[in-house]
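Propose amino acids for all 262 sites.
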């Protein structure tokens, strides 16, 4: 099969089209004919050698959507011909989706809804898993929670905001343009035009002492702003923290900062 392979990760990394052989289908594996995939920040970090989990085969990208063409002998949840969405490769010993075919563990796949187009389906796995981990595991989301999303129309951010609304939260999110602010409003999310309104001005306008949870998908100056927006003993969850920050405001407000890779 054809694949795009990274032969050496690092600053001089490049993708080379090659003929490769896919490994044996394991007992709990699905062999998928790749129809769609997407590039995530984690793929970029591995490409340039910043994350040690890069696939040994050199075939990146864990997001995939496609059609099952073979199943392992112990697979019970899927059949040949099923259309699926999955995240199950592009790391460690598993090849990714920059190839004609990909092997995915059964437990990392779901059926693709009939009304979901391939382009959208191929973008969903990593950002969806990240958004759900943020809300369910890190934020312990519950109705009435006040939540702020930095980067409210980005890949992870736009899902965090919509899911938080679904779970009954009061959601505010940053927007850098009228178009993005309109999109947020159309989805029931309060926009914060942060270039025109400071964090202090936003809190004064809303009339409360801060947000229970800040989800920072941007990093940099947005993380410093998060320290202002969070209420005392609030929680900040960031997926973009390769920066140097002054943590003094965290100590003065007894904030919790949770970090993880995306």
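Proposal:
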């Amino acid at each position: 099969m054809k694949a795009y392979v990274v032969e050496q990760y690092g600053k001089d990394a490049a993708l080379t089209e090659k003929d490769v052989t896919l490994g044996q289908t394991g007992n709990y594996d699905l062999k998928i004919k790749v129809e769609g995939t997407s590039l995530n920040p984690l793929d970029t970090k591995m490409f340039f050698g910043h994350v040690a989990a890069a696939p040994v085969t050199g075939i990146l990208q864990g997001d995939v959507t496609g059609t099952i063409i073979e199943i392992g002998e112990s697979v019970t949840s899927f059949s040949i011909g099923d259309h699926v969405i999955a995240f199950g490769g592009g790391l460690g010993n598993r090849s990714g989706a920059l190839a004609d075919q990909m092997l995915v563990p059964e437990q990392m796949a779901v059926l693709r809804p009939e009304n979901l187009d391939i382009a959208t389906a191929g973008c969903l796995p990593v950002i969806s898993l990240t958004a759900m981990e943020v809300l369910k595991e890190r934020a312990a989301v519950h109705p009435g929670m006040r939540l702020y999303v930095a980067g409210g129309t980005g890949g992870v951010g736009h899902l965090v905001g919509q899911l938080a609304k679904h779970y009954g939260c009061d959601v505010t999110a940053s927007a850098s343009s009228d178009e993005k602010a309109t999109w947020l409003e159309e989805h029931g999310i309060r926009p914060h035009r942060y270039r025109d309104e400071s964090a202090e001005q936003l809190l004064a306008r809303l009339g409360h002492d801060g947000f229970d949870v800040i989800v920072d998908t941007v990093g940099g100056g947005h993380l410093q702003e998060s320290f202002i927006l969070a209420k005392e003993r609030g929680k900040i969850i960031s997926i973009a923290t390769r920066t140097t920050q002054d943590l003094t405001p965290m100590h003065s407000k007894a904030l919790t900062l949770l970090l993880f890779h995306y």
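The first helix runs from residue 41 to 47. The chain has eight helices and 13 strands.
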